[in-house]
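Students often ask what a holo structure prediction actually looks like on paper. The answer is less mysterious than it sounds. You provide the chain, you provide the ligand, and the output is a string of discrete structure tokens encoding the 3D arrangement of the protein together with iron/sulfur cluster.
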Amino acid sequence: MLKKAAIQKIFDLAAQLMEKGTLVAPIREDAGYNFREISDAKRVDLNFYNTLMSPKSAFFPQMEDFVRYNNNKSILDAKCVDLNLKPVFLFGVRPCDVKSFEIMDIHFSGTGAVDPYWKKRRDNTTIFGYAFDVNIPADGTDFYSTLKIGAADPEGSDIFMIKKDNDLLLKAITPKGENLLSSLSLLTDASADEQKHFDKTVAAGRSFKTRFMSVDPNSIAKKFEDLFHKTEFWEKVSDACLSCGVCTFVCPTCYCFDICDETLFSQGVRRRVWDACMFTDFTLEASGHNPRTKVYQRLRQKICHKYSFHIRKYGVISCVGCGRCTRSCPVNIDIFSIVEAAMKL
Ligand code: SF4
Ligand code: SF4
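The corresponding structure tokens follow.
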């Protein structure tokens, strides 16, 4: 099913989705674009290249309360925080970010122990993927084609959107997407020519080039195993690193978190907060011992986790080449260049 809406009707489309549930979509903010829960349909803005933060927080919020309790009462009176979700529409997700959800599913629901918070949100969300414009060059930091992700891959989305002149084409990819599309009265049927344009764009997206190198997952996993103890390599590539952790917070496939208790007077809460292997105290043990006190050890961990350990354990690279870590790094550390340099050794 291929439908369309005039771009100028995008606010009406957003308003229709808001009547059915919670809309999370890109909006323009001072620092750039970000996905936010929409309360004013007129703020939805599809004129973005990609967002500063990845959309992972739609399923894995930066801070999330699990349990509330009162210190003066029995632990048996502690209350689990109920999600009580309305249907969520995650609107305008780029194909590389859609791919990241599949990688994150491995950790939150694919290894036997299911994270109910992640799973409920995933099941409750309809993903509107959104193609990059294949007629303009990719941002210089992107390298998703290296990881075999196309600029207009519909796979993983429930509905996939491609902009054509002044229209937005929307194709249902899953039954969930099909049900939703057929309920949106604002949409009209697309023509045969528009169907051709859609298919042509998906094909063009598959041959669209970002920064590219040929990466075989098993070879790169082995390469980083061999390089693990080459301290001079890691010291050189991490020389400027400030351990700020920004690269991990913006990354769609970084999922480290901490669980902590916070109390104010007698009221307590147990919550999950994002954490990062780039932080100095991430591996600080209760004894005071820290196995990764040096910056190079922490950057090595991040790169080897994505490009070696993750492949050995789950068979896939834990990176989608979105380029956010490079764009956001205050000292221009570039994961693509580090992988490229490693491959040449
Ligand atoms: S490591 Fe960098 S390029 Fe890879 S997914 Fe994370 S932010 Fe994107
Ligand atoms: S964003 Fe750059 S400086 Fe900050 S921790 Fe990551 S690599 Fe280091």
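The mean pLDDT is 97.
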